[in-house]
C-alpha cells in the first residue's frame, strides 16, 4: 500500500546505519522523522543539502548520511537531467552507467547538453523495502502528480531563491493535461490568443510547437503519439477556441500536455528562475564516500560526461627511489601505504576524493579550488606529524593543483578524469620541490583561495607537452618548529 512504512525493516536498517559512524546528535531521529512523514512527496527525490539546511546539519555529513543509507537499502539513488528553464527532470536514470548528457524538454521545446556540475542532479527516494510510495507505481498516479511532482524538481524557484516553487506555478500555465491510454483518442479544447502552443508527451520526451495567429484556418488539430515522436496535422492554429484530438498509437499509456505561450510571453523569453543548491553529478564523482561505497557505479565504457570546473590535485614523494634503497622495500612500501591513508583522510575532510594512486603519487579531485588548496596545506601538516610519529623525515611531499574543464570517464573499471586540465595539473606538480605547493593562476583566482595562501611567488612556466606557458604560483609555508 502506498505510503505504508515497513517499521521492522526501517528499524533494522536504521540500527545498522547508526553503527556506520558517530553521527551528530539527534541526526538519526531527524532522518527517521523524514522517512515517516505523512506525505509521500516529502520522501521523493530528497535533496540532502535542503535536508541539512532545514535541520541544522552540516551539508557534508548529510550527504554522507544519505549515501550510507542508500548503501543499506533505505533510499534509492537516482540521476536526473534537469531543464535549466523549467526545472523538469526530463530524464531519470537509476544508474550512472546509463546516464547520458543530451536531452529534450518537451514543455520548453528545448534541446540541450548538461554538464555534471550544472543540471545533472542526484537525489534520494525512500526505497520500497522501507516505505512504499505512490510514486513507485507510476501507472496509479494522476497526470498532475506524474508531471508536477514526479517530473518537476522542487529546487527551481520563480524569480528568486525565496520565490514560489516553479512546480507549484506551472499547473496554471498548462491548458491540457491528461493520460492517454494505448489506442485511445482524447478530445481537448481551450481558448487562446495569438502566440504559440507547446504540445508535449512525457514518456519519450517528445513535443511539437504550433503557432497561433488571427488568420489561420480554424480546423481541428490532430495530434498523434507515435513510437518516438509527437506528430501534428497542423503547424498553425487560429486564435480563439482551439480544438483538437490526441491519439496514442503506442502500446503503453502516456502523459500528454499542452501549454499556451502568448506573444507577449514569447517576446519576454523564459521566466526568471533560480535553482536552489542541489547535489550535482560532479559533487558525487568527487566524493570519497560515494567512490568507496559504490565502486560498481561507472560510466559507460564508450562515453564520457563533461565537467565544467574541477580542481585536480597531484602529490608525489621527493626522492622515493632513494627512500626504497635506504630503508628497504618492505619498510618503504609500508610507509607509502600509510601516507596514502593519511592523505586520503585529508582529501575526504575537505570534500574531495582520491581518484587514483600512481606509484607513490596521488591524484585527487575537488569541486571547489579552495577545498583543494586547503587540503594541500593540511597534507603538509599531516605529513610533518606522520614523520614525527615514525621518527624521521622519510616522507616529503611535492604538490601541484590546476582547475578547469574535464571529461569524466571510466578507466580500468574506475571513475577517472581525462583531458587538458589533468595534464596541466600533473605537470604543475612536477615543478614542485620538497614541501612545495604549486598552483596555477586559475586556482589562485578561485573563490576563497587567496585568503588561504601566503608567500606566493609567481612566474610563467613552460610545461612538458603543453603548448602555451602557464602562470603558476609557488606556495611556501613557514618551517615547522625544530626543522
How many DSSP-defined strands? 24
Tell me what the CATH architecture of the largest domain is.
Answer: 2-Layer Sandwich
Rg to the nearest angstrom? 27 Å
Strand content: 25-35%
CATH superfamily descriptor of the largest domain: Nucleotide cyclase, GGDEF domain
Helix segment tally: 14
Largest sheet, strands/sense/barrel:
8 strands, mixed
Based on Cα principal axes, name the global outline: elongated
| Distance between the first and last residues' Cα | 68 Å
Task: Provide the number of structural domains.
Answer: 3
Mean pLDDT: 90
For this structure, the CATH topology of the largest domain is Alpha-Beta Plaits
Helix content: 25-40%
- Based on secondary structure, the structural category is alpha+beta
Q: Low-confidence segments, ≥5 residues, pLDDT <50? A: 478-483
The CATH class designation of the largest domain is Alpha Beta
Descriptive keywords:
five-stranded mixed sheet, 483 residues, alpha+beta, 3 domains, disordered C terminus, 14 helices
Characterization of the model:
Helix content is 29%, strand content 32%. The chain is an alpha+beta fold and 483 residues long. It has three domains: 7-161, no CATH class; 171-270; 301-476, Alpha-Beta Plaits (2-Layer Sandwich), CATH 3.30.70.1230. The strands form six sheets. Strands 17, 18, 19, 20, 21, 22, 23 and 24 form an eight-stranded mixed sheet that branches. A five-stranded mixed sheet has the order 7-15-9-10-13. It has a four-stranded mixed sheet with strand order 8-14-11-12, with no helix packed on it. A hairpin with a 4-residue loop joins strand 3 and strand 4 (110-113). The longest helix is centred in the C-terminal third of the chain and has 21 residues, at 329-349.
